[in-house]
Amino acid sequence: RVEDVQFVRALSGLVSLFVYGRQIRSLQGLDGFAGRWITVDTGKGRRQKRSLAELKQAPFLSGLKVGWPHAEDTAAIGQLRHLKKLELYGCRDLDPTALAFTPIELLRVQASFASLENLGKLSSLNRLAIYDCRKLESIEGEGSSLRELLVQGCHQLVWDSISSFPALRRAYLVGLKQGIDVGRLFSSQSAEYISFQKCKVTVSKIVDFGAKLPRLRELLFSLCGVSKQAALELSRRNKDVVISNGPATFKNGEPCLE
Q1: Region 30-58: what's the mean pLDDT?
Q2: What is the average pLDDT value for the chain, to the nearest integer?
Q3: Residues 88 and 111: beta-carbon distance below 8 Å
Q4: 195 pLDDT exceeds 70?
Q5: What mean pLDDT comes out for the span 10-25?
Q6: Tell me, what DSSP letter sits at residue 142?
Q7: Which residues pair with 151 in a beta bridge?
Q8: Three-state DSSP class for residue 169
Q9: d(CA 239, CA 94)
């Protein structure tokens, strides 16, 4: 049975490495890996002893995907000085502080924690995607460089928590069950595009987004219960902003024909 990756030393041209199996105990052998991508999944069980400490032996590693990460894996990942893309699934907790010196630009997470804090510690982070984190209630990233956010299937997420991203330009929200009132959208000097799909959205009043969202160019509601009339009225109130409820799209109070 294979318990490490020493076989990699015989594969000098290997570009990507995929490691699966409950018997894996270490990544010993990565000193012979010059590729850019590694995927590691040793199963759900966290009782088995296994270590990712040897990740630092892969000098050119820019992409990493880890399934069912252990608590100590974050420290190992935090030693990677060229990592740009990180994907974690089956994640129980994540402290971005431990990754502060890793230049991550894209972070994708499928997790079971209730809050994600200190994202501002990831100074290079541009894109964040969070999937099926049903317990997640808040995301905090004050001072973050985040430009693009995708949140899908996070039923408990409170929309107001997203207001902590001052540089956010594009937001994609799918399947949020907590109520979102269009009149209480967060203030952002950077947001240009906001999309809601299968979210619980209400339009309590027709508002002008000019003061709170001066750069907004598109606001989309798909399968959110927003009426055609509400979308029309919002487009009349907000000049040059494309507003859609899914079936109908308006700009300056007129239908958009594409």
Answers
A1: 88
A2: 91
A3: yes
A4: yes
A5: 91
A6: T
A7: 130, 173
A8: coil
A9: 41
Tokens representing 111 are: 């997790």
Kindly report the number of other CB atoms within 10 A of residue 24's CB atom.
21
**The amino acid at 133:** C
Return the structure tokens found at 27.
Answer: 């990544």
Mean pLDDT of 219-226: 95
Nearest to 34 by CA among 54, 7, 16, 53: 16
- Chain centroid to Cα 80, Å, comes to 20
Statement: residue 185 has pLDDT above 90: no
Strands (E), 146-229: 148-152, 170-174, 180-181, 193-197, 201-202, 218-222
User: What's the pTM?
Assistant: 0.92
Q: Look at residues 203, 213, 107 and name the one whose alpha carbon lies nearest to residue 168.
A: 213
CA distances from 69 to 86, 130, 235, 242 (A): 12, 16, 46, 41
Q: What is the pLDDT of residue 152?
A: 95
